[in-house]
Design brief:
The structure is a homodimer. By secondary structure, chain A is of the alpha/beta class. Chain A has three domains: 2-18 and 232-360, 3-Layer(aba) Sandwich (Rossmann fold), CATH 3.40.50; 24-226, Nitrogenase molybdenum iron protein domain (Rossmann fold), CATH 3.40.50; 393-426, no CATH class. Chain A is built from 17 helices and 14 strands. Chain A has helices at 9-15, 24-40, 42-53, 64-72, 76-94, 133-146, 165-173, 184-193, 210-219, 245-256, 271-285, 291-299, 309-319, 331-337, 352-357, 393-409, 413-426, and strands spanning 2-5, 101-106, 109-117, 120-124, 150-154, 178-180, 203-205, 225-226, 234-239, 263-268, 302-305, 323-327, 343-346, 383-391. Chain A starts with a strand and ends with a helix. The mean pLDDT of chain A is 95. At the A-B interface, α5, β2, β3, α10 and β13 of A face α5, β2, β3, α10 and β13 of B.
């Protein structure tokens, strides 16, 4: 692990650098598949499903029978856990609902903002070794609360043409309206253009590998929105001498096991803690099934000693971590002053895993420094705000002259005229 | 004007088609300027300012003296109008503030969402014939309400090296922290990378020509967010036989004067109204200074007759207009059921110009059908939501076992371990 003591602010940029990858060679593949899916629809989807997933099929939609079956393939214990998580996620995201507020900005000028659901959304859930059913909870629960009419989920089939039962079970439980066994670039292309069987959606959510990430970027050129730009997962822990080194090590490792390119950083105001955490990481690492992955991420990790809280805070805000854990007696100071972080975990009994699964907050969060300007997924991600206004005779008399003046000053005579015409009739 | 009667739903897509333009040739220019600005900073900015704006300078920052001077160059009448508009915009956007709500999702599990300002934002205001100071109100007022620390405004100088006084005056009034006389692609590149004098920002807002639009798109590849994808301005009016043809014509024309590629559409349940509006447009058009522009937009406009409200509604939702004016006795039906529109104007005394300038709603709105998934600019556009959670001993005992089960089922042992470690110590 890389230990760094009292770095100069001029070195921060280099120290906090994230791994970046070139996507240019991927782009060509993505463009190719997009244009084929746009042209040939399901036929192109079938072609690439066979090529990438080794499964040949014409029919990608998951049937009611397959969903029924999935219920018997999940243990009652896991069902109960999923249910608890779902409840908490619902409670947290329900609290984000806002009411319509009518503001009379000038006498007779009534304006209001209302949020209405994005009618059609697409959720992408990767396949592979780990079935990420928790991500379905994070996306389908707020989509249902928002009132999205069509919630399409795509996830790749395995070689036998199956999707993991935990995915089917959770999707059905959370109100996903249709599931397609399609993965990767071809899934994103299908939801972008629509095919004979896959509906075109207006916004695509969800994680994925580099191919999916580039495909989502490309979809934004075809009138589709995406949840946010994606990057490797990150965790920054800020801690002082009283923090528990074993807990911190376990949190760093839980982030490190996501991928070899995961970023884990400890910022501490205690040198002893840094050494203790380093030792604990070594020990705990040995017992992990995903040791090889975590090891690589840990190699690139940083243990940074700084002299005081102010410097620690500045460093956090400069980095803008996806996840921030605060283990410090000065937790109030950090809570109040942190400006850039996706999700913040406070105190020794708040591991990041809690937010990944069951506390109720969302785990789809901005990485790569995007916490500086992006929100994590929340209820609003599935809504768009619209404004409304209704002006009375009194109202247009009140603000009309100002509009005329401003339109005139901007050289927009027809804008002025639309008001003048009305004011003349009211004289 | 194109009149269409009772079109089949299968024809809608063609009828509602927006003009699209290829941007590939622009991209090359944009890429070139971006890489020069990234490499050479202010020197590259100066080079392109001389090339495109015909003004040679080393110093692009507007001085306090220039701002002082601008105050004397604006009439008191216009100042009063700007002040009224600013007040209304403040009232409307202030009402969008949300409180932090703490939710105890399970006993001992406290979660909350808080919105914090994006620290550094950039506003782009085009130059040219019309000084769009109204757009400064729409962007700088919510930026100030949100609490953004640095608000940078770029606007191109004219050949004498001046920016229109209305722009300087409004920017200063609304709390813009620095103004640079830089326009076009080089302005967007400057705010994306930062130069010796222009700060790097996290999110860029504002309208612009095709070059600016493509430059904003490119900036998103360099860790910058943008307000929304841009396209030509649009207005759809839905009206019935009781609507005032002259008013409707004036509204259509106010949109048409924006640009030759503006989109104006009337959807009416009365054939007589369609003819009357057509006549009124012809008459009013003759008196407009921007007649030539408006004429071109009107050529591409559509007057669509449909038999009933339900069809009209479906058509509106299919199109997703930036601006929607409702002039119908059935206004409640439309208000309640419209799903896709940026800003909605209700009744005969609510011209779209009102929202452009002074009613208080924002005029930076989704075009090109993006009303299906994007909000117009609002207070939240300048904030990002962060989540926080603090779990007690009781809390982790409550949800810990569910986390362990789910992490195990997803094959993420280190995630499980972070909880197990804590639960063991609490036994």
């Amino acid at each position: 692990m890389n230990k760094i003591f009292n770095p100069e602010p001029s070195e921060w940029r280099e120290i906090l650098k994230r791994p970046t990858k070139s996507v240019e060679d991927i782009e060509e593949t993505v463009n190719q598949i997009f244009s084929e899916v746009q042209k040939s629809g399901d036929a192109a989807i079938a072609k690439y499903t066979e090529l990438f997933d080794g499964f040949k099929t014409e029919e990608t939609r998951v049937t009611a029978m397959e969903i029924d079956e999935s219920r018997n393939l999940i243990s009652q214990e896991l069902k109960d856990a999923i249910f608890l998580a779902k409840q908490n996620i619902e409670k947290f995201h329900s609290a984000q609902k806002t009411e319509k507020i009518i503001v009379e900005t000038s006498p007779g000028v009534k304006c209001w903002q209302e949020k209405r659901p994005i009618q059609k959304v697409g959720l992408y859930i990767p396949g592979g070794s780990a079935p990420l059913f928790s991500t379905i909870l994070m996306l389908a629960v707020p989509a249902a609360l928002a009132g999205c009419k069509e919630v399409v989920l795509c996830s790749p089939p395995n070689r036998e043409g199956k999707v993991h039962p935990a995915i089917l079970y959770t999707a059905d439980l959370c109100g996903v309206t249709r599931i397609h066994k399609v993965g990767g670039i071809q899934a994103i292309a299908g939801m972008t253009f629509g095919t004979e069987t896959i509906p075109k959606v207006y916004k695509i959510f969800g994680p994925g590998n580099q191919f999916v990430t580039v495909a989502k970027q490309l979809s934004t050129r075809h009138n589709v929105a995406i949840d946010m730009p994606a990057g490797p997962s990150e965790l920054l822990v800020v801690a002082d001498e009283d923090a528990n080194a074993a807990y911190i090590a376990s949190d760093l490792l839980s982030q490190a096991e996501h991928g070899a390119d995961s970023q884990v950083i400890l910022v501490a105001t205690s040198k002893e803690l840094i050494d203790a955490v380093e030792g604990e990481v070594e020990t705990q690492l040995q017992q992990l099934p995903r040791k090889e992955i975590a090891e690589k991420a840990i190699e690139n990790s940083r243990l940074i000693y700084v002299e005081n809280q102010d410097t620690a805070l500045e460093l956090i805000n400069e980095y803008g971590p996806e996840h921030l854990i605060i283990c410090s007696v000065a937790e109030e100071f950090y809570i109040e002053n942190v400006q850039n972080a996706g999700s913040v975990f406070i105190g020794k009994f708040t591991p990041e895993s809690a937010g990944d699964y069951a506390s109720g907050t969302n785990h789809t969060l901005p990485t790569n420094g995007y916490a500086k300007q992006y929100s994590g997924v929340n209820l609003d991600s599935f809504l768009k705000s619209m404004t409304f206004q209704k002006i009375s005779e009194e109202g247009i008399k009140e603000i009309g002259p100002a509009i005329e003046l401003m339109a005139e000053a901007e050289g927009l005579q027809a804008h002025k005229n639309a008001v003048s015409l009305r004011l003349r009739e009211l004289e």
